[in-house]
Amino acid sequence: MENRTLVIAILNKAYVEQNAMLDLFLQSLGGGEDTEFLIDHVLFVAVDQRAFNRCRTLELHCYNLVTEGVDFSREVFYMSDAFNNMMWRRTLFLGDVLRRGYSFIFTDMDVMWLRNPFSQLYRDGEDLQMSSDCYYRNPFGNSFFNTGFYFVTANNKTVALFDEWYARRNNSKGMKDQDVLQKMKREGAFTRLGLKVRALETTYFSGFCQMSQDFRKVITVHANCCASMKAKLIDLRSVLEAWKVNNSNGTSNATIAWPPIKGICLHDTTNKH
Ligand SMILES: *[C@@H]1O[C@H](CO)[C@@H](O)[C@H](O)[C@H]1NC(C)=O
Ligand SMILES: *[C@@H]1O[C@H](CO)[C@@H](O)[C@H](O)[C@H]1NC(C)=O
Ligand SMILES: *[C@@H]1O[C@H](CO)[C@@H](O)[C@H](O)[C@H]1NC(C)=O
Ligand SMILES: *[C@@H]1O[C@H](CO)[C@@H](O)[C@H](O)[C@H]1NC(C)=O
Ligand SMILES: *[C@@H]1O[C@H](CO)[C@@H](O)[C@H](O)[C@H]1NC(C)=O
């Protein structure tokens, strides 16, 4: 966008199947409030050839992120070396985007965009605004953030953060990038770098761990607290359906409840951390 802001989503071959996550994601943007124009501001970062090809076919904005040493003619398994290399390659890439002076919202593909999030983001010197699985009232307190949706402002502090994050790759075997960032936070890296990091409220930026209780305020719904792709797809479809049905007049009703989550998603939020 004019103000050097964009949305970044990672695309892999599992997401681009017919009737899978990419379709739902685009459907949410297409049917949300003031979100359709945002499709033109999403950079889809494909991590394999099939995802890249599908992205091009749909005439989206596509970037082919090649990871050296990862052979994409083979299956890449979760937490395998190839998977980890790809994950760190992604962190390096995002740091590059910041270095070029672009701020961005990073979104996982299993986040449904029901409303335009930009109006709800804070502009009070926040460097990083992170979604969280569960929100504990204090936005600067000990929230357990989730790297599936966050906004990062491009500046020297956030560039330094991503540099440090990436530099940890060799000493973080068996950890997900989100866990590494949590660890950095616990070790005081945010304070040391002078970062203002805010946790976003689940009333607005919600997920299956903690659904927004207010249809008038909900902006995003993330299929967190849910491991299986099949379950995510089932439950996100019913979220979109409920949104369409109950928000069709533009007269959202605060008392409307979400449909029950039918997949095998976990709901015990006490168990998540
Ligand atoms: C950038 O511009 C877009 C489009 O006008 C606006 O919605 C958004 O709030 C702006 N972003 C920031 C971070 O100011
Ligand atoms: C970082 O700091 C330098 C010098 O202080 C400045 O020129 C540059 O624009 C800053 N970069 C970003 C991304 O803010
Ligand atoms: C991490 O390991 C790679 C090779 O495995 C090496 O090239 C790189 O310099 C190492 N980085 C750090 C920060 O130690
Ligand atoms: C939408 O309008 C119709 C007709 O007025 C009404 O029956 C329905 O309940 C409304 N839906 C919502 C979500 O308000
Ligand atoms: C909102 O929904 C509740 C429950 O379905 C219904 O009783 C109530 O009349 C609705 N209010 C409005 C303003 O539509």
From TrEMBL:
Topological category with respect to the lipid bilayer: Single-pass type II membrane protein
GO molecular function: glycosyltransferase activity
EC number: 2.4.2.-
GO CC term, one of those recorded: Golgi membrane
One GO biological process term: cell wall organization
Compartment(s) where it occurs, according to its Swiss-Prot or TrEMBL record: Golgi apparatus membrane
Predominant cellular place of this UniProt entry's protein: Golgi
Pfam families: Nucleotid_trans
Domain Nucleotide-diphospho-sugar transferase: 38-235
Key words, A-Z: Cell wall biogenesis/degradation, Glycosyltransferase, Golgi apparatus, Signal-anchor, Transferase, Transmembrane
Keyword Nucleotide-binding tagged: no
UniProt family annotation: Belongs to the glycosyltransferase 77 family.
Protein's name according to its UniProt entry: Glycosyltransferase
Native species: Musa troglodytarum (fe'i banana)
